[in-house]
Amino acid sequence: MSLFSPKRKKLYEGKAKILYEGPEPGTVITYFKDDTTAGNGAKKEQISGKGVINNAISAFLMAKLNEIGIPSHFIKKLNMREQLVAHVEMIPIEVVVRNIAAGSLVKRFGLEKGKALPRAIVEYYLKKDELNDPMVSEEHITAFGLASLPEIDEMYSLAMRINDYLSGMFLGVGLRLIDFKLEFGRQFLSEHEMRIIVADEISPDNCRLWDAKTGASLDKDIFRQGLGDLMTGYRDIAARLGVFPDTAGVGEAGGDILSMAEAVERAGANAALNKEAEGAAR
Ligand code: AIR
Ligand code: ASP
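Structure tokens for the assembled complex are given below, as produced in the milestone run.
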């Protein structure tokens, strides 16, 4: 099915992705755009190639999760910008896991940025742009009928497992997973059977990743804070994971593995860029 196939039905357009009806019942195609936003769309730019790299990174990470038995909507990567995913009923909650103080947590509690938290903290936010995604508690979630207690428990335990797994994987390639955001959906397997699975995307758009040595931001904070070239950071992350996004990988996202030396060299270049930009901003 081609991207511009007139038969293809658009189901939804978000800030970074478009969802199309999939080729079979129970499937959806996600198309990764280059649109990059911050502050709920207050800052908006097209960054050439961002969608391609996020598609590749997210496909790679979701496939890894599937391998260790964490269910996600990911089925396969179709081409540079698209993946085939399972249709789910989205739960309108953003589940944020934090390991290190950064971002809104620092602002809210006056913490020192970069300080390790005593334990991983899980937070819930209502996915509603008009309200700026307000933070919500389990009470709000259950009272407003957004998810049941067992569903919240399931999202919590999946989020913790994902945090352990991804933290280790990223540290292995010299990256610290500071915090990240997940979204979940309900997959109906039969009339009586439903399970909660990871949906949306897992990419540098929704993970804070710092170089373990230099502390340089390689994720969307580069864009949010105007620290330099976003694509340099994203490419660095992809390279370290061994994801080569410029191939239309079919099946799980694989790719050429860059040598560690090459990855480190790129990381160094990016760290220097970050420093420069930070200096300029002061
Ligand atoms: N996030 C939250 N809403 C949208 C996104 N992408 C992610 C950020 C960050 C984490 O959730 O990318 O990794 C926490 O964000 P914040 O702004 O609450 O500190
Ligand atoms: N909420 C996303 C962010 O992390 C996107 C946006 O705000 O427009 O910045």
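The longest helix spans residues 149-171. Residues 15, 37-41, 224 surround aspartic acid (ligand 2) (CB under 6 Å). Further analysis is deferred to the final report.
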